[in-house]
Structure formats: C-alpha cells, structure tokens
C-alpha cells in the first residue's frame, strides 16, 4: 500500500531531556524517524526541548522547534504548521504522554491532526492496566494474579488476596518509576504511596510476583495489513525481579528451546495483533524455568530502549521502519536497508551473541544504594557482539570503562567464601563480578543458581572464564592457552596480569601464531544473503570479512555509555565529526559501544565498528584500517583518556597534541603555564595527607573547594567551610596517595563564564560565551546557563577572550576547546581548560548557527580559521537569548542528595529560546518540568550561612502573597527580620509530605548544612520535594531565576514558540 | 579429537569432533534458525546432508525426549561453531554430544560457520566429507566419487502403512511418507483427522481402498525428479480427490501437473522466511527446508493451457527471492505449499494452512 496521499506534513515529538529511563535511544529513534519520513517525500516538523540531540539539527527535519514540550507550546506550533499527521510513538513516554494530552485538550481535533501509526485507543489499551488485562483475558494470554487499585487502602486489601511478595507497578510512568516489590504489609504501604503518586492517573497494579522466572522480551512490528514479525528476542541474565533496564541482557535468547521460543513468539504476535499496533512494540514475558507456564508482564506500545538495543543487535532499524508503517507502508513493501535484496518483512537471523550491560551512576554517587530492583537506576548501557557468549560478556564489561579489565574485582577478591554467599543474596551493580568471584571461591554453579535463580547456562559460561583464569595463572602461557583466552574475550592486560607475563612476551606468542581478531559483519541474515552494510565486530575466527578501502580515512572515537557528566552531547559531536569528515571527501570510521546512540546507527559513518573503547580493541581496528589519523576530541573524556595510549603505540592523534591535553589535565604543568601567561587562577594545592590539607586550607582561607584529581563531571567535589568539614572529607576520601592526591583550591565566590572556542594555533573563533546563573560552587553541568551573558561587562568579555586566545596559542590547540572562568569584581580567573569538545557545543552550535564541529574538523585537517566562513574572534550575539536548564533524575535515585554542589548530578538538559531573557528563562523552567503557582505556602529551611540571603527572598515571596513556612531556626531569624512566617516542626516530616502532596506547599527553599547525609532532615526534605515534584531550590540564584520566570508567567503575555532562526 | 571437513571446492575446515567417530559424505547445507537443532537433526528432509547452523551456540538446552521430527537422527553430520558441553533446560535428558554419539552421527565444533555459510552461499550447495580420521588422499577420492543418493526417499520413508487417530474422526487423510516430519502428522491429528500414513511406494489401489477425504504428499529429501513413484501417484489422484502437498510433496505435485522444478543455489533452510499470501496480501514468517523449487514460469505456462489447469495459480510467493511458495488448482482440488506449515522448528504462523485445507473438505 502506498503512503497516504492526504498526509504531506508530519509533526514529530521528541522525548525531551535525558532522564534515567529515557535516554539517547530516543534521539536515535527520532532522528531515524525524521530521516525515514523525509525519504518518503514528507515534510517533517520536529519539536523537542533537548538541544543536545542530533534530531534537533536543522538537517534532520524541515523545521525544528527547540521549545518546551507543553500543551501550550505544541498548540502554538500545530496552529502555525498545520501538519496533517502527528507521530507520537517515537518520542518515548514523554512524546506519547504529550500526544495524549494534546488529544485530551481537543487540539488534535481542532486542527484536524491525525495521529499516525498506533492509535491512541491501542496505546491506552496497552498502558492502562485494567483494559490491558481485559484484553489479555479475551485473547487467552496468561497474566499474573493481580488487582488494580487507586488507593492505599484498596491496595492493602488486594494484597491479602494475592499474597506476598507482591509487585507494585504504577500506570503511565517511565522506567518503572515508583514501582517495587513489597515483601510485607509495611513495605507495601510505602511503595504504594510512591507508586500512586507517580502514576499519571493515580493507578497502580498489584501483581503476583514471579521473581526468579526467566525474563524474556520480544521486539515486534506490525503493519496495517496485519503482517507482524519479530525483530529480535532477548533474554535477561537476571531473572524477573530486576528492571530490564538494569539487567544484563543477551540477544537472542540462549536457554529457550525452539518450542518455548515460538510459544512466546506466538504470544507476542497475538498481542500486537489484538492491540492493532501499527509500528513497533515491546512485549515482556516471564517464563517458568521448569515448565511451559508463562505470563505476559507488560507491553510497550511504542519504540523503546529495548527497541534501540534490538535495532543495533539485529541490524534492523526499528524506528525507521516504524515511521514508514505509520504513514501507511507495509513491511513487505519496505526494502531491508542492510541486504538491499530482501524486504523489511523478514525476521533477522543473528549469527553472534549480543550482550548489554547497564551503566550505573554509582561510581559518582558512592554513597547511594546500589541494589537493583524494579525501579531503573542505570543512566546508559553498553553493548558488545561476538561469536561466543564469554567474549561478548567480557567485551561488554570492558566497555563499562570501570577499573576492571575482566571479571576480577579487587574489593571482592579479599572476601571469604561465606561473605560471597551473603553477597550473592544482593542484586547490585557488581553482581556479575560477584558471580565470578563466588565461582572462584569454589561455590558451585548449583549453589549460585539456587540463591540467584540465574540460569545455570549463564553460570557455566562464567565458570568457563574463571577456569581459563585459573589456567592462565597456573600454566605456562602457550599458544594454545593464549588462543583459548583470546577467543573467550580476555584482554591482554588481564592475560598479562594472570599469567605474570610481560606485554612483550604475550605479543611475541601472538605474533608467532598470528593471533589477531578478524572482523565480521552484522547483516540481519546470518550471511544467507550478500550484504553491503559496513557494520562490524571483532572476533577470533578464521575468515576476515572486513573490506579495507584504499581511501584516506579518519577514525572518530565515540564516547561510550551515557553517564552523568558525559551524555548525549558527545554523541552529537561524534556524529557531526563523521559528517564533516565525509563532506571533506574522507572515509569516516566510528568506534563506539553504546547501542542507544545515533553514532552507532549503521548508516551514519562509512564504517562502524561496534567495539569496546578499550585501547587494545581500538588499536586492533587502527592496525587494520591504517587511518590518516584518529580523532579523540569529540568523544568526551572516554576518548581523551585513550589519547596517550594511542600516541605511545605510534598512532597519529589529529588536532590538539596529547602533550597539550596533558598540560591542561596535569595540575602542576597547568599552574606553571598560567603563571607564565600571567593569567590568574584560584590558589590551590595538591595534598596527600590530612595535615597537608589543613595547612593548605589555612593558607588559602575558607571556604575551599576540595576534590580528587583526575575526574569526570566533578566527581566527589565539595565546598568546605571549616577545618572540621575538610578533615571529614579527606578522611572519607578513598586511598589518598601520591598518585591520586586531593586538590584543595581557593573558592572564589563569583560568576562563572564558559567559553567554547575553535583554535587553529594562529587565532580563535568564539561563536558565543555563556554565563552561569548560579554562583561558583555549582557544577557547570548542573547550572542554569544563559547565552549571551547578561551581567558581564564588556571589559570582562575582552579579558575572557584574551585569556582564551593566549591559552589556545600556548597549548597549540587545534580544534575545539572549552574554558571555564570565574569572574569576581571584574577580576577573571581560570578554573578549568578542556582541550576537547564540551557539553555546551551542541547548544552553542544551534543558537549561534555556527557548525562548530565541522569547523573544528576543517581546522584539524589544515584549514585556517581566517580563511573559513566564520572568521576569527568573538562573533556578535543577536536578539536571541537561550537559557539552558539542567534536568535531574532524583526521583529514580532516591538516596542521592538533591542539593546542588560542585559534583554533577543532572542527567539531561533543556533549552529555552526566545528574544526576551525573561521568556527564555520561563521556557527553560517549563521545559525542565517546573510548575508555577500563584499562591500557596513556601517552605524555608536555611542553614546559618544562608539565613541572610534567604530572608531577602522570603520577604519578596511574602510580598507576592505567598505564605511563608519555616523550620524553627529559620523562623526565628525571619521573625527577627520582621518577615511573617509560620513555624513548622522539624520532627514531623509526614505532615510536610502531606502538605506537599496536596500542593499546599508549592515551593521549597533549602540551603543545606551538610549534604549527602540521608539521615538528616534537610536531605529528607529535599528528596521528598523531588519525589513529589515540588519545585525545590538549594541555591538562591536558581531561586531568583525561578521567581523571575514565575513573574513572567504571571504577566500572561502572549508567548511565541518559533524555530531558532526567528529569534536571531 | 580433531575432525576435518573437506568441501568439493577444496575448502578444508578443522575443528573438534563430538558425537560419533568415523567418516561421512554428504551435501553440506546451512540452517539459519537460532533454535531448533533437535528438530533439524531428526527431520528426514535432511537425510544425506551435513548441516551447519549459522547460530554459533548450539546445544544450549540439550536434547529432550519429545522434540523429534522422526524416530532417528537423519542428518549425516552436524557442524557448529560452539557445542554447549553443559546444557541447561528442565526437559533436557541428555547432551547433544551424548545424543549424537548414541545415534552414531558425526559432529564437529570450533568451526567458523559463518565462513562455511558464505562458501555455500557463494558457490552453492556442495558435497563434503567429514571425518575424524587424518585427512588423506583416499578421502579426497571418496569425495570426488560421491554423488547424492537417488533413492534417498526410499531410505527415509515408512516401510508399511499405519493408521493414526480415532476411527470415528470426521475426516480421513492419506499421507504419503516421502520423509515425513512428525509435525505434519500431529497437525492433521490436531485438526480432527484420521491419518493413514503410506510408504512412498504404496500402490494406488491401496490408497483408493482406504476411502480417504484427501491425500497429502509429505516433505522429504532430495531431488523431486528422482521420486518417480510419488510423481506418478500424485498424477493418478489429481482430480480424483483433494490432493495436498508440503515441501517435496509440493514439488512432486507440480511435476505431476507438468510444471518444472529446479535446484536452488543454496536452498532455503531456516525459521525466518517471509511468505506472502496472494489472496489476503498478508505476509507471514515460515519455517523452510528445501533445496529445490517449483519454476513459476512453468506454472504460468501450464495454467495458460486451459482445461482443468485453467485455475492453476501461485498462491504464495517468497518475499525475499520471489520463488514459488504455494500452488492451488480449484478444479483439481489441489493445494500445496513449499514451506512447512507444521513448523518444528520454526514459527507457528502458518498453522492456518491446515485449518484451511481440512476446512475445505466440508462435513462428512
């Protein structure tokens, strides 16, 4: 069937900011969808508030709106664009919810917009527990014993009928938000509370627990012709009980017999047909490990994280095909993009094993609860491909970029057998290492299976790895043993460590036996048909399939899994680097391991290697390809960290030299450089003992900024105000050593300014400067940021530019660099220089319309800035004002302190764009999900340092008609200042919780005394506000910005929501 | 123990032996199913063939007592990337290795099966020799001298007639066993048929005397043109009673009608083959295992001759390579399909074929 001729213009809604449970996979899906629709000759209009995405690039859609995903903004855009169709199923739960709201508000009807693809009825039927269960019963698909409840009381009663343990699943949430498994009445009440709160419709499903069953997923597609196929099935290594987003997942399923595989396949097809889904859908099932009994857990009637994984695992672009189905095409009419010979209506056959491991943020939040359950905590994931399970698993482990280069984890090696038996009871992020260590300690596969319910098949495979570890340690390293270890995926460093051989010896044996990996293609069809797709993975096998072209080529190192501090923006940069390289007529090759991203889409680069970003794997690719050079400056810290290792192996790193990168990262060298250049920086010392720390702080004067050296995203950074706090910090800091000192720096209370520049050794181009709303002490990734600066003098800007140019020249920077300054009393200090692409590159590229990555690539390949289109120096700003707002995932990480500190915690960002600063600010807050109330209670809980400044805000809010509540100490202070307020006791958190729930308290202002201590009142209060979505501020600057936005909101001036170009 | 495989084109593959020891000759084919090795091993259509699985990990769920498509292992040899030495499944009664040993079938693992698959794809189905002995000149000679047996159907067919299902079933279907998969019999039984399974060389008279509602020609191994008995038998019953066919049976019916068949370069073997039903426009995924196909042009030419063949048409096509997947001729009461609606292994999508066929018989 051809596409519907009545549809000419389609609106695509993106998924907004990255949060836990909704990450880069929707940039991938949205980008694919837009490209796919345009391929069919349709005009595409895209709305998304997230500026770090590739989908919001001008070349992806015909018109791009970086505007908040609110009904008001969408109504404006729909009115203006008058699209015939709306595609709601590719923007995650956010996009879907937006479509539902637009429909409920009557806007779709008003403007005659048709929902394309899966109908809202189908979506509701799949997402509303009650109607879904009804449908399952009608078609005879098994579901667990369960009841739907709308209140705690109903829930408690239902649990008596179903029995404990019992699963709580809220309706209409993402990533299992607010869900959990309750073991008893008490825990049920608690979980129910959160669950009801998080459900969009205050509805929760209580369900019989099938914990311990196999968890299996099927990715299904269906077209309007009722053709339905499976793209890929997946098996969770962790049995039911851990959220699939937090599970290690393999594709295809490994332990299912043909009968079981097809029984569940048939069930999935039956469900998608009954729901009449037109597009992609994910079906989750639980299979009893000792019978044919199974139940349907849930259905996602849209493109999801799993479908991104399935797309990469199978080589089948689900989002692209889903978009085509939505506009009326049928599966058998769409060509298979990989083989070009077959059609989209066939089921991919894999001839390799795919392993996905989630990336959790616990390395940053070492105090957070690391246990895993039904609520997702991972920020990202890695995927690995190989022809054995062992190697696929080990590659994935290495891709996590942890300290581990295999399945050995130092902190577990010390444990006893008994301790390991206890640890097996805990499901946490180190589970895979725990399994291996338990086997090493002689705990049998049966015993481990008994405790963990993990299928013995997986445990046997892990045991194979452990056995080879033993052999490596016990036997002389022979060619046979090395070969065995390599095939199993052991890294060289692991082989060297275990066998106590030098790299030279291992390398000699390898050379003698010619033991190098070959590369095989991911082709959707297990080699049945000839394919041209340049999508490869390494494996120790016989036949090399990799075709090396004779063209000049450049390898771009990707940024690996999404994590706090290194997000989707680096994928944006990597993809743009690839495009720039292609435009310059050079073959582009990307190496990356993140299945969620656009960069690992097989039609982005000329060649894609799905590999760990581990030096050995990267170097193997380089050895094969012999590129002109390797680009590390776009792949975040991951790629930068590889640079010295590449250089020491004789690889040409293009752009800024590795030595310059080292100057910027090495404290002593950097200090010396700034001294020579006469550029001030905060005073600071690297200390290796408590006494040194105390002395340094005394010398500098409190407050001081303390942090460990060499970190991403300000991990463990803190402002300390007293010796007591300082000593506490140093004592808690792990392993102080000469190699890893602690840095004690002067804390300069001022305004932070951030510059992204492109340099070519002669001059610099600065497309724009950004100013932070929050004063120093809040991590740049967590601050509101405005372009262009609003409070900085011209003189300061000149100084900033001057320093930037001096540093760029001194470091001989070629390509992108980012510098963070702090300005106090017109005095400019340098805090940090990153000679690489930064988090703000996508934003600045979009708001200034300067293709920064492309220019950087041109410069890297030898062009002079002066000869290029945008010239040199600081480009003038326009009428446009853009405010970046950080977005946090505290609701998922309940025990992470919500207070803003120098340690980055946000997972995503949105951009507010307007020609008026106040409106841009309002849009930023709206885009980030803040609500505005005109009346109600504002709760103040201030520490001593914050009382004075807090009081001014309290007065202001009281004058605006808000009722001020305050904790006892704060109330006394406010009373003294003559600000009317009501005291609330600190010991009655429940009362405050009730008030927040009822939306009586509409705002919380809290300046933390300590932070990170979950037992303290302030910690609980902040996190309560986050859970209940009450706007909550721990920094007065953010509060002031919020008040400004609130006042703008109250003016009720007409807002416009236009593409960026309109505001220039 | 080492095992070696030599292909007709000179390709030599080495790996570890499992299962039995010895030397076998056969035609090497690949199957792309990611599960279903037990069904594949016991499918008589694989008789005379050495099968390699494109999925690298084989034997994961071991062998159970029920997923057999016939009463013995039918393949000549089995080549995989990695044999699961420790399987895990609640129904598992023995390992794949034990099973092949017990059935005296050679297996080999540690092979780059993707390379092997590509060889077969590029050069077409080839003969091979698989041995646990050191490869010598005599093995080469054996391979050169080898040709696929022309009487392969006779080797796998039932020896005598047997009846299954209740005597009072609403319908009685004759099933000519050319290498019958158990799944076909089970599907017919599940559709309330009494089934009389005949050996491949059954006399027409015996079938006539059985008072049947329809006659189904089963799947089976080899070149359909070698199955002369069956072709003649199909010719004798076309037009006299509803005649159905699956896989080899489908090819045999086509030949009996006067259409032609040809050998595919490397065949269709797997669980993921898309088939479009020309009546509904629906596409479904089918299980397939065949090395020969019916020539579509010859079918069209036949249909053009008119008479009882006027309504002859292709009912199903393969979406990937547009080969013939199904035929019907209403005037003759003939329906046949190239794919395996009974699955085993593979998707259940085509079970409806049996409902349609049996449904077309009307009430008795």
UniProtKB/TrEMBL annotation, chain A:
Domain statement: The large subunit is composed of 2 ATP-grasp domains that are involved in binding the 2 ATP molecules needed for carbamoyl phosphate synthesis. The N-terminal ATP-grasp domain (referred to as the carboxyphosphate synthetic component) catalyzes the ATP-dependent phosphorylation of hydrogencarbonate to carboxyphosphate and the subsequent nucleophilic attack by ammonia to form a carbamate intermediate.
InterPro entries registered for this protein in UniProt: ATP-grasp, ATP_grasp_subdomain_1, CarbamoylP_synth_lsu_oligo_sf, CPAse_ATP-bd, CPSase_dom, CPSase_lsu, CPSase_lsu_oligo, CPSase_preATP-grasp
Gene assigned in the entry: carB
Cofactor needs: Mn(2+); Mg(2+)
Positions contributing to Mg(2+) 3 binding: 820, 832
Protein name per its UniProtKB record: Carbamoyl phosphate synthase large chain
Entry keywords, A to Z: Amino-acid biosynthesis, Arginine biosynthesis, ATP-binding, Ligase, Magnesium, Manganese, Metal-binding, Nucleotide-binding, Pyrimidine biosynthesis, Repeat
Residues that coordinate or bind Mg(2+) 2: 298, 300
Family under the similarity heading: Belongs to the CarB family.
Residues that coordinate or bind Mn(2+) 3: 820, 832
EC number: 6.3.4.16, 6.3.5.5
Subunit structure, as described in the record: Composed of two chains; the small (or glutamine) chain promotes the hydrolysis of glutamine to ammonia, which is used by the large (or ammonia) chain to synthesize carbamoyl phosphate. Tetramer of heterodimers (alpha,beta)4.
Residues the entry annotates as binding Mn(2+) 4: 832, 834
Protein's UniProt keywords contain Zinc: no
Pathway: Pyrimidine metabolism; UMP biosynthesis via de novo pathway; (S)-dihydroorotate from bicarbonate: step 1/3; Amino-acid biosynthesis; L-arginine biosynthesis; carbamoyl phosphate from bicarbonate: step 1/1
This protein's record includes keyword Cell division: no
Single GO biological process annotation from the record: L-arginine biosynthetic process
UniProt-annotated binding residues for Mn(2+) 1: 284, 298
Pfam families: CPSase_L_D1, CPSase_L_D2, CPSase_L_D3, MGS
SMART domains linked to this entry: CPSase_L_D3, MGS
UniProtKB/TrEMBL annotation, chain B:
A single GO BP: 'de novo' pyrimidine nucleobase biosynthetic process
Keyword Protein biosynthesis: no
Top EC group: ligase
Record-annotated Carbamoyl-phosphate synthase small subunit N-terminal domain positions: 1-131
Alphabetical list of Gene3D superfamilies matching this protein: 3.40.50.880, Carbamoyl-phosphate synthase small subunit, N-terminal domain (3.50.30.20)
Record's function text: Small subunit of the glutamine-dependent carbamoyl phosphate synthetase (CPSase). CPSase catalyzes the formation of carbamoyl phosphate from the ammonia moiety of glutamine, carbonate, and phosphate donated by ATP, constituting the first step of 2 biosynthetic pathways, one leading to arginine and/or urea and the other to pyrimidine nucleotides. The small subunit (glutamine amidotransferase) binds and cleaves glutamine to supply the large subunit with the substrate ammonia.
Record HAMAP family: CPSase_S_chain (MF_01209)
Protein name per Swiss-Prot or TrEMBL: Carbamoyl phosphate synthase small chain
Lineage: Bacteria, Bacillati, Bacillota, Clostridia, Eubacteriales
């Amino acid at each position: 069937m051809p596409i519907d001729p009545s549809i000419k213009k389609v609106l695509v809604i993106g998924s907004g900011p990255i949060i836990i449970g909704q990450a880069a996979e929707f940039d991938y899906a949205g980008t694919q969808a837009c490209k796919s629709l345009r391929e069919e000759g349709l005009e595409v209009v895209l709305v998304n508030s997230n500026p770090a995405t590739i989908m919001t690039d001008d070349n992806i859609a015909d018109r791009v709106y970086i505007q908040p995903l609110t009904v008001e903004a969408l109504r404006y855009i729909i009115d203006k664009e008058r699209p015939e169709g709306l595609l709601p199923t590719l923007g995650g739960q956010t996009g879907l919810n937006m479509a539902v709201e637009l429909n409920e508000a009557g806007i779709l009807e008003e403007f005659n917009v048709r929902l394309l693809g899966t109908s809202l009825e189908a979506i509701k039927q799949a997402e509303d527990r009650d109607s879904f269960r009804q449908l399952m019963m009608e078609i005879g698909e098994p579901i667990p014993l369960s009841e739907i409840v709308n209140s705690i009381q109903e829930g408690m009663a239902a649990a008596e009928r179903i029995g404990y343990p019992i699963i709580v699943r809220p309706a209409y949430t993402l990533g299992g938000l607010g869900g959990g498994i309750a073991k008893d009445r008490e825990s049920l009440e608690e979980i129910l509370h959160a669950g009801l709160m998080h459900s969009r419709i205050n509805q929760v499903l209580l369900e019989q627990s099938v914990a311990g069953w196999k968890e299996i997923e099927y990715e299904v597609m269906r077209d309007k012709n009722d053709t339905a196929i499976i793209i890929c099935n997946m098996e969770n290594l962790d049995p039911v009980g851990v959220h699939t987003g937090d599970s290690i997942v393999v594709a295809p399923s490994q332990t299912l017999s043909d009968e079981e595989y097809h029984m569940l396949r048939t069930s999935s097809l039956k469900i998608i047909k009954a729901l009449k889904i037109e597009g992609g859908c994910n079906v989750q099932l639980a299979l009893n490990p000792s019978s044919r009994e199974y139940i349907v857990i849930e259905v996602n009637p849209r493109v999801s994280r799993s479908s991104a994984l399935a797309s990469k695992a199978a080589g089948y672009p689900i989002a692209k095909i889903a978009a085509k189905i939505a506009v009326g095409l049928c599966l058998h009419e769409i060509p298979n993009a990989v083989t070009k010979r077959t059609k989209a209506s066939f089921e991919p056959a894999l001839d390799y094993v795919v392993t996905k491991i989630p990336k959790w943020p616990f390395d940053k939040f070492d105090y957070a609860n690391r246990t895993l359950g039904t609520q997702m905590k991972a920020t990202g994931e890695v995927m690995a491909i190989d022809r054995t399970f062992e190697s696929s698993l080990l590659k994935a482990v290495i891709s996590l970029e942890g300290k581990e280069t295999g399945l050995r984890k130092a902190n577990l090696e010390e444990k006893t057998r008994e301790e390991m038996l206890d640890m097996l009871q805990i499901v946490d992020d180190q589970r895979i290492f725990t399994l291996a260590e338990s086997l090493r300690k002689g705990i049998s596969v049966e015993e481990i299976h008994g405790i963990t319910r993990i299928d013995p098949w997986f445990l046997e495979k892990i045991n194979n790895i452990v056995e080879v570890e033993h052999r490596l340690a016990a036997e002389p390293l022979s060619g046979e043993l090395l070969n065995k270890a390599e095939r199993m995926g052991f890294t060289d460093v692991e082989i060297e460590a275990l066998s106590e051989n030098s790299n030279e010896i291992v390398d000699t044996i390898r050379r003698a036996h010619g033991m190098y990996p070959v590369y095989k293609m991911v082709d959707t069809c297990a080699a049945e048909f000839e394919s041209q797709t340049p999508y490869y993975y390494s494996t120790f096998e016989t036949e090399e399939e990799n075709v090396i072209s004779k063209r000049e080529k450049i390898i771009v190192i990707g940024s690996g899994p999404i994590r706090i501090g290194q997000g989707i923006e680096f994928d944006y940069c990597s993809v743009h680097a690839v495009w720039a390289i292609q435009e310059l007529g050079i073959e582009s090759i990307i190496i990356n391991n993140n299945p969620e991203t656009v960069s690992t889409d097989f039609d982005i680069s000329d060649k894609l290697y799905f590999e760990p970003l581990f030096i050995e794997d990267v170097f193997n690719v380089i050895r094969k390809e012999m590129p002109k050079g390797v680009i590390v400056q776009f792949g975040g810290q991951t790629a930068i960290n590889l640079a010295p290792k590449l250089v020491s192996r004789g690889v040409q790193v293009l752009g800024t030299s590795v030595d310059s990168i080292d100057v910027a990262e090495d404290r002593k060298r950097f200090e010396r450089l700034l001294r020579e250049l006469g550029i001030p920086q905060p005073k600071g010392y690297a200390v290796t003992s408590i006494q040194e720390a105390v002395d340094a702080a005394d010398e500098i004067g409190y407050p001081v900024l303390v942090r460990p050296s060499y970190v991403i995203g300000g991990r463990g950074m803190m402002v300390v105000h007293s010796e007591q706090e300082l000593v506490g910090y140093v004592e808690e800091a792990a392993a102080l050593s000469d190699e890893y000192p602690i840095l004690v720096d002067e804390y300069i209370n001022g305004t932070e300014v951030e510059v992204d520049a492109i340099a070519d050794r002669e001059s610099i181009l600065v497309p724009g400067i950004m100013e932070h709303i929050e004063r120093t002490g809040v991590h740049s990734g967590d601050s509101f940021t405005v372009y262009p600066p609003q409070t900085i003098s011209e003189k300061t800007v000149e100084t900033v530019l001057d320093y930037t140019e001096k540093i760029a020249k001194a470091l001989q920077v070629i390509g992108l660099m980012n510098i963070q300054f702090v300005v106090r009393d017109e005095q400019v200090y340098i805090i940090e220089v990153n000679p690489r692409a930064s988090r703000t590159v996508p934003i600045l590229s979009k708001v200034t319309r300067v293709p920064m990555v492309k220019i950087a690539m041109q410069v890297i390949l030898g062009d002079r800035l002066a000869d290029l289109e945008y010239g040199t120096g600081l480009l003038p700003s326009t009428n446009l004002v853009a405010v970046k707002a950080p977005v946090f995932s505290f609701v998922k990480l309940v025990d992470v302190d919500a207070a803003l500190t120098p340690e980055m915690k946000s997972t995503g960002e949105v951009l507010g764009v307007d020609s008026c600063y106040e409106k841009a600010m309002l849009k930023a807050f709206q885009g980030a999900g803040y609500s505005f109330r005109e009346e109600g209670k504002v709760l103040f809980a201030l520490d001593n340092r914050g009382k004075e400044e807090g009081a001014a805000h309290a007065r202001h809010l009281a004058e605006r008609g808000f009722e001020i509540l305050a904790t006892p100490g704060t109330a006394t202070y406010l009373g003294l200042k003559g600000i009317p307020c009501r005291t609330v006791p600190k010991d009655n958190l429940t009362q405050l919780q009730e008030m927040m729930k009822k939306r009586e308290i509409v705002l919380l202002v809290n300046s933390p005394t300590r932070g990170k201590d979950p037992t303290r009142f302030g910690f609980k209060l902040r996190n309560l506000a986050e859970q209940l979505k009450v706007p909550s501020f721990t920094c007065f600057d953010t509060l002031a910005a919020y008040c400004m936005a609130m006042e703008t909101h109250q003016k009720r001036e007409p807002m416009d929501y236009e593409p960026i170009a309109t505001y220039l | 123990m080492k095992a070696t495989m030599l292909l007709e084109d000179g390709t030599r593959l080495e790996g570890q032996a499992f299962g039995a020891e010895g030397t076998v000759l056969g035609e090497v084919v690949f199957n792309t199913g990611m599960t279903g090795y037990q069904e594949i091993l016991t499918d008589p259509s694989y008789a005379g063939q050495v099968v390699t699985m494109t999925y690298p990990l084989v034997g994961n769920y071991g062998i159970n007592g029920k997923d057999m498509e016939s009463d013995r292992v039918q393949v000549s040899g089995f080549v995989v990337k990695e044999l699961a030495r420790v399987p895990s499944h609640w129904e598992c009664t023995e390992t794949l290795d034990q099973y092949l040993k017990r059935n005296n079938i050679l297996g080999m693992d540690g092979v780059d099966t993707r390379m092997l698959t590509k060889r077969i794809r590029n050069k077409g189905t080839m003969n091979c020799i698989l041995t646990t002995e050191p490869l010598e000149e005599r093995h080469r000679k054996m391979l050169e001298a080898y040709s696929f047996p022309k009487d392969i159907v006779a080797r796998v067919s039932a020896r005598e007639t047997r009846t299954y299902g209740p005597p009072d079933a609403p319908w009685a279907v004759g099933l000519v066993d050319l290498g019958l998969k158990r799944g076909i019999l089970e599907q017919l039984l599940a559709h309330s048929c009494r089934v009389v399974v005949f050996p491949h060389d059954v006399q027409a008279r015996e079938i006539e005397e059985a008072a049947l509602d329809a006659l189904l020609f089963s799947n089976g191994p080899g070149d359909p043109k070698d199955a002369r008995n069956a072709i003649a038998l199909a010719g004798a019953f076309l037009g006299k009673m509803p005649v159905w066919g699956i896989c080899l049976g489908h090819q045999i019916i086509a030949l009996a009608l006067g259409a032609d068949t040809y050998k595919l370069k490397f065949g269709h073997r797997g669980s993921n083959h898309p088939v479009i039903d020309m009546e509904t426009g629906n596409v479904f995924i089918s299980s397939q295992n065949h090395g020969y196909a019916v020539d579509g042009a010859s079918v069209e030419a036949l249909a053009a001759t008119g008479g009882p063949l006027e309504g002859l048409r292709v009912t199903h096509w393969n979406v990937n390579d547009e080969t013939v997947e199904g035929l019907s001729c209403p005037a003759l009461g003939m329906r046949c399909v190239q794919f395996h609606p009974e699955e085993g292994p593979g998707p259940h999508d085509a079970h409806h074929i049996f409902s349609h066929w049996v449904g077309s018989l009307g009430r008795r």
